[in-house]
Amino acid sequence: MKQLAIVSGKGGTGKTTLSSSFGALLSPVVLADCDVDAANLNLMFNGKLEEKYDYYGGKKAIIVQNKCDKCGICKKICRFEAISFENEVYEVDQYACEGCNACVIACPQNAISLETALSGEYYYSVIDEQKEIVHANLNPGEETSGGLVAEVRKLALKKAEEKGKDIVLIDGAPGIGCPATSSITATNYVVIVTDPTSSGLHDLKRIVETVRHFRRDFGVVINKYDLNPDVSKQIENYCLSDNIEILGKIPFDELVEKSNLEMKPIVLYENSMAGKAIKEIFEKVMRKLK
Amino acid sequence: MKITILSGKGGTGKTTVSTNLAYTLSKKYKVQLLDADVEEPNDHLFFNVNVEKEESVDILLPVVDNDACIRCGECAKACQFGAITSFPNATVVFKNLCHGCGVCSMVCPVNAITEVPKSIGKIVLGKINDNLKFGMGLLNIGEPSGVRIIRQLKKHIDENVDVVLIDSQPGTSCPVVESLRNIDFAILVTEPTTFGLHDLSLAVDLVREMKIPSGIVINRDTGNTNLIDEYAKKENIPILLKIPFDREIAKLYSEGKIFSEYLPEWEEKFANVFDTIKGMVK
Ligand code: SF4
Ligand code: SF4
Ligand code: SF4
Ligand code: SF4
Hints:
The complex is a heterodimer.
Chain A: E1 2-7, H1 15-25, E2 29-33, H2 41-45, E3 48-63, H3 73-77, E4 83-86, E5 89-92, H4 102-106, E6 112-126, E7 131-138, H5 145-162, E8 167-171, H6 178-184, E9 189-194, H7 198-213, E10 218-223, H8 229-241, E11 246-250, H9 254-262, H10 273-289
Parallel strand pairs in A: 1-8, 1-9, 2-7, 2-8, 9-10, 10-11
Antiparallel strand pairs in A: 3-6, 4-5, 6-7
Helix pairs in contact in A: 1-10, 5-6
Chain B: E1 2-6, H1 14-25, E2 31-35, E3 50-64, H2 74-78, E4 84-86, E5 91-93, H3 103-107, E6 113-129, E7 132-139, H4 147-154, E8 163-167, H5 174-180, E9 185-190, H6 194-209, E10 214-221, H7 227-235, E11 239-244, H8 247-254, H9 259-262, H10 265-281
Parallel strand pairs in B: 1-8, 1-9, 2-7, 2-8, 9-10, 10-11
Antiparallel strand pairs in B: 3-6, 4-5, 6-7
Bound molecules: iron/sulfur cluster (4 copies).
One iron/sulfur cluster binds next to helix 2 of chain B.
């Protein structure tokens, strides 16, 4: 079984445009939407929900107030500034707590315990006979999105195995932190999407370094390349000098906006310039996976 | 006044709003712009920053003295992140999993663990002009989370300026929460698409939960849909500004330019955004 990931150093470069199109072109396939902070892929495919799972992320400390004698040790020991002292009570800021257990061990009154917190949900949905999707929703403010990404991938792999599908398409999390790296570990190939803005080039370099850090094979797609030919050229030069393969360039196409509004992958629009470019990129990537 | 700029998702125009606001407000006020998008900070690309200071952001990593260690396994049992394991011939720390919480050294019965600082990123501080101070955080490649960098960056908030603008990371997870802690107002940047609305509603949930007043900026508005207007009305959140879908603006942005500098009618519009916010925060 092959795993293909589509990532971008930053959101908004057109990653969903590309991954939804790849999703539409691939058949059979299991899609894994690892952009759990803002899961959008299922909106594009409108899969039918079949299974739902709770996701328990990290634990959080809780102080039982009537056991606490206000010695302040917990506040001093917590390295994450998660314990506050206001209005004469010690309290745990649920957002800042990393569940490390230091305060629990340190509290002389045994007033603190760690409790598991429900951090989100993940789902398995069926799009049609050939396509399935695993996606998730992280509760706002949760820190453990890397863990949830891992769950989504695990379930997608399991489904692919059960159903004998040989490709899993991962829509990666943006950025370079733990959700992003959880999306690319152990993949067979990574497609990096960038756009021709000066920040685009900056972000591209960071994600390239990250993908290299995890030793994955990868190539670059420049989206909306004609919006700024100068910066596109800069990106191409950078790729050339750094020995990075450019898989293709997608032209700016007003139809893409329409496809986003209509929630239909752009490759399904017959006259789309962008769709045509994406099909060519797709063929190339498929040859890489062989 | 401290304002955080966020968006349910990246690429909606957070950087555009942050840099244009910082630029236009600095004509009238003392402003500090802090780029807390530590995985991919971009704001500095739009300015000439005079860097005055850099500092490292460190966490404490445990180091095991394997001669002293009796392989009792207490550290591994206590660690909540599976970052330390006691094997028969050595006790090993997995640096990439370690949160630097200090629990293992707390529980070690023979004091075999010491802690040494390790840099996970840095803070860059400087000035753009006399009225505009700048700061940004940068996470090292391969490090899992920028929360601590944001926390340290926010320690550099200058209480003497009139406005502090914090450009947050995209999404709604813990780094965003860190950018929102103890601030007065949140600007939610979105696009008028179904995705935009979906991500916006996640951001709204978050600021509501944190009890922070907020307003919406619609970027790349085509006028083709009033999806966001309807939502804003229903949820009773003001729309502070609409930035049209405009090739000129997109081109200036792609060149790393602040568009209100070139299209002066926008200066007043951004200034008005701040006036609206002042009216709401009181
Ligand atoms: S360490 Fe325990 S007793 Fe002391 S302030 Fe914290 S919760 Fe209260
Ligand atoms: S569990 Fe750790 S992070 Fe949470 S409050 Fe206690 S010491 Fe702080
Ligand atoms: S410092 Fe904390 S996270 Fe790191 S190994 Fe020790 S107990 Fe685990
Ligand atoms: S707690 Fe201390 S002695 Fe025990 S295994 Fe860990 S490092 Fe070794």
